[in-house]
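Design review, sub-item: ligand-bound model
Attendees: FS, YL, KQ
YL presented the inputs for the beta-nicotinamide ribose monophosphate complex:
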Amino acid sequence: MRAFIVGVGGMTNGGKTTLSESLKQQIPHSCIIAQDTYFKDDSVVPVDSNGFKQYDMLSALHMDQMMSDVDLWRKDPAAFLRTRGPTHTGGSDVYLLIVEGFLIFNYRPLNELFDKRYFIEIPYDVCKTRRSCRVYDPPDPPGYFDGHVWPMYLKHRREMESSVPGIVFLDGLQSKEELLAVVYKDVIEEIETIKGKWGIFITIKTTDISFFFLFLNFICS
Ligand SMILES: Nc1ncnc2c1ncn2[C@@H]1O[C@H](COP(=O)(O)OP(=O)(O)O)[C@@H](O)[C@H]1O
Ligand SMILES: NC(=O)c1ccc[n+]([C@@H]2O[C@H](COP(=O)(O)O)[C@@H](O)[C@H]2O)c1
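KQ shared the predicted structure:
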């Protein structure tokens, strides 16, 4: 089974979901696992001394469940894809998993699985403005961005930069189309490389078998 896992990380409202959805539309046999669908129930998310719910931490996420879903895909991508409903098929026979989320590179067991890592970044003021237009469940209380979201982003970013090499940083101020074009080209090139490697492998294996039968013929004659 030829399979490829791409991580689309980045700060909140950087454009991870937008880019991942467009990528999925463009690439056959692809599907998305999104980290923000694994948040724990509000009742179990702790509150800090300022009264802010501690949502921007790995402990607020069911990372065990997220890993189980990634493992399901890894065991049988085709079966996993079928559970996600109708998809864009045809073309390449390489299966692509897009894992998107704001803390995907900070969780080591998940980070280890990526073949390619992208991180979308936008400036503080753009991030704050985009965030103010979005309604989460529960909604952000006053002061949440500066009191919790941004400090946690800076902390996790420092940790990520000190421990995760090979990240491709993307400028989230580029248009949606520009971002898609860059990542699409890159991913397609990676997929073609995988197909090339497997092609060589299959050719070598076929050659091995041919030599085996020649040898058998020689022994028996
Ligand atoms: N390249 C872009 N340029 C301008 N706005 C964007 C871009 N990508 C996403 N957005 C907008 O930013 C907001 C957050 O996008 P989203 O993809 O949900 O971010 P994330 O998944 O990183 O939180 C949405 O309103 C979306 O339309
Ligand atoms: N249950 C939820 O989906 C939920 C609840 C509260 C906050 N959030 C926010 O979601 C953000 C991460 O998701 P995005 O990267 O899509 O913005 C975090 O900054 C967190 O504060 C999500």
